[in-house]
Every structure is written in C-alpha cells, then in structure tokens.
Backbone:
C-alpha cells in the first residue's frame, strides 16, 4: 500500500476580501512550498474551487455577500474530504466553534500568527494523509476479497465454501467499522489537540489492520476449516473493544451505548479472541440497528461469569422480534432488515460459539427489545491441576 505523506498536500485556496492580507499570506505560504490560489469573495472562491479542487482551503469568516460559514458548507457538499481552515477575529469564538461543528479542520485568529497557521495546516495535511491511506487500504482489501472470492466460486466445492466466504465478507464490515472508528478518534484528537485520543485511535487502527491481514490470510486458505486458536481472554476487554469499534455508528444512529463491566479485570475464558470479537460485533451491530429504529435508542453491553460458563451479553430497547423472525433468525440469509441485511451476522456468531463448544441464545417479545447472549462453557482445568 502506498502511504501518502502530509507533505503531498500543497495545493491551497485562500479566500479573503482584504487585498493586503491575501497578498501577504499568499507570499508567505508560497515561500513555505504551497501552490496558492486566491479569491476576493466567497462566490469567487467557490468558482476557483470548482475548477482547481485544492485539498486545503483557508477562508475568512466575515466577508461581504457570502460569509466563510456558507463557503464551508458548500465546499463540504462538493468535496467532504477537503480540509477547510477558518480565519476569525478575536470576538468570533462562537462562530469558530460552529465552524468546527460543520466539519471545519481548524480555525486561526487575526492577526494571524505564522506558527499557529503552520500547525493548523500540518494537522489538516495529516488528516488528508490518513483518509487517503484508509481509502487506499480499503480499495486494496476489496480487490483482494474479490480475487479470493472469484477463486472460490471457480472451485468445485462452491456451495460449502461460498457460505464461508459470505461470513468472512460480513466480518470485513465489522473490521472497516473499527478502521473508521480509529480514524474518527485520530481526527478528533488532532482537531481538539488531544494526543491521547489520537494515540488511542492509532492503536485501534493498528489492531484492526492486523485483523484485516489475518482475514486476507484466511481467504487465501479458505478451503481449510477455521479452528479456534485459544488463549486467555478477558471478556470485559472484548466488550470495550466492540463498543469502541461501533461507537461512531451508534452515534450516527442516535443510539446510546451503556457498558456494564468491572473496572479491574472481568471474567476470563480460553478462546480465540479475534473470533470472539467478530461474533460479539455481529450481535452488537444488530442491536444498534434495532435500537436505531426507536426514540432514545439504547444498547447495554455486559459480561458475566456463572455456573454455566461465561457470557457476553447485549441488550437493546428496539422493537423486538416477531414470532416468525424468532423462529428463523439463525437461518442463513434470513434478515429482518430486508435489503439492508444479509442474514449472516447471527449465523456467524452462532458458528463461532459452537466452535468453542458454546451457543447463542436470546429473549425477545414484540415491542420489548431483545437480549442476546453468547455463552461459552466453563474453562476445563488444565490436566494435572489441583482441584
């Protein structure tokens, strides 16, 4: 995969109605290596943007006619990935905050400090590089999946292998959700100058890229059964990771996620952590979809240890399951979402549970939400261990 350096983004549009500021800033930015186009109004700026499509835009907030907020809105409609930095006065803090809510990359105040501008441009370029890298990786992944799927289709065992490939492709959606969640955290950390948030996002990206690499390996050896590679797993960490992966999706759907896990160390079991996370993500994704259809949707994630083993649980306050859906929900390719679902998520979760000697169970009444539990049997004592 080709990695894009932030230094690759040097095309910049400067929009300001004051000729002196345009001349001074364009000379300074050109000296820093930027290819600068200038505009004296919002309307002229949009016209130039449509012709040149620069990656970076600097626009004054207060201009005759079309102001900087309107310029920001229109540019984001045309090109959502373009990074727009707002130039404000000292008394325009409320407007600057509004611009950030409208997906502005950053804002700088007049009189413009060269160092502050350089930092803002650097952050914007880093965001562009990160989005380009994620886009490139996603396209490469899709190509590899398509190639692997084509080979499988050509295989004489099409029926058996095709179902496995479909399940794996369903898992890709969850991994991409993790990649998008990590990207969102990095972007927010850069915008809010919170390095810890950016570092957490980078760690999430690294984990999910690793999971994608493992998936590609599985696709290339698809004819072999997928046996669990067991190791000690803290279920509270599985709950937290799943919540982090789908936090952005829950926010988009207006669904509140509530985590009920021990502060220090949760129930543990011997399992394949990646397979377990995939299964739980499928349960959580379905719960978010259900809760997203009601007012004040809520999903509660939890884990527990009991006499019957360990349990990962997800509960939603959605519409619940109709009797027909409750009978057919674990059948492949049956979905309550119509064209919006594949019907594979619960089948994948059940398959993972069964491969670990466990099961997925649920409770639901129409209009009362649903509870899904992934239950694994108690971990057997190691041979020779005192009882």
Residues:
């Amino acid at each position: 995969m080709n990695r894009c350096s932030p230094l690759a983004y040097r095309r910049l549009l400067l929009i300001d109605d004051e000729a002196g500021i345009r001349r001074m800033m364009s000379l300074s930015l050109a000296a820093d290596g930027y290819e600068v186009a200038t505009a004296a109004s919002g309307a002229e700026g949009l016209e130039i943007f449509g012709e040149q499509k620069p990656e970076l835009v600097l626009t004054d907030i207060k201009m005759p006619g079309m102001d900087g907020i309107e310029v920001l809105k229109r540019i984001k409609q045309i090109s959502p990935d373009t990074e727009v930095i707002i130039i404000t006065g000292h008394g325009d803090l409320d407007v600057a905050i509004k611009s950030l809510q409208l997906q502005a990359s950053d804002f700088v105040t007049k009189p413009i400090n060269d160092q502050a501008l350089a930092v803002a441009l650097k952050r914007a370029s880093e965001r562009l590089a990160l989005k380009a890298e994620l886009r490139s990786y996603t396209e490469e992944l899709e190509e590899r999946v398509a190639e692997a799927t084509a080979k499988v289709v050509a295989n004489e065992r099409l029926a058996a292998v095709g179902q496995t490939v479909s399940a794996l492709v369903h898992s890709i959606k969850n991994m991409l959700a993790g990649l998008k969640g990590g990207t969102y955290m990095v972007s927010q950390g850069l915008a809010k100058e919170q390095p810890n948030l950016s570092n957490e996002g980078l760690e999430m990206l690294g984990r999910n890229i690793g999971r994608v690499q493992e998936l590609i390996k599985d696709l290339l050896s698809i004819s072999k059964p997928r046996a669990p590679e067991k190791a000690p797993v803290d279920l509270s960490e599985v709950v937290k990771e799943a919540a982090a992966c789908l936090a952005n999706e829950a926010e988009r759907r207006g669904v509140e996620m509530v985590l009920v896990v021990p502060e220090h160390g949760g129930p543990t079991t011997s399992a394949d952590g990646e397979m377990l996370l995939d299964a739980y993500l499928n349960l959580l994704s379905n719960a978010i979809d259900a809760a997203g259809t009601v007012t004040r949707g809520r999903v509660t994630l939890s884990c527990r240890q009991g006499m019957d083993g360990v349990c990962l649980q997800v509960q939603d306050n959605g519409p619940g399951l109709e009797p027909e859906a409750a009978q057919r929900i674990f059948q492949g390719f049956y979905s309550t979402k119509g064209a919006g679902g594949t019907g594979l998520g619960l089948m994948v979760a059940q398959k993972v549970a069964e491969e670990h000697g466990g099961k997925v169970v649920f409770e639901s009444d129409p209009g009362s939400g649903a509870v899904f539990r992934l239950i694994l049997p108690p971990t057997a004592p190691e041979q020779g261990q005192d009882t």
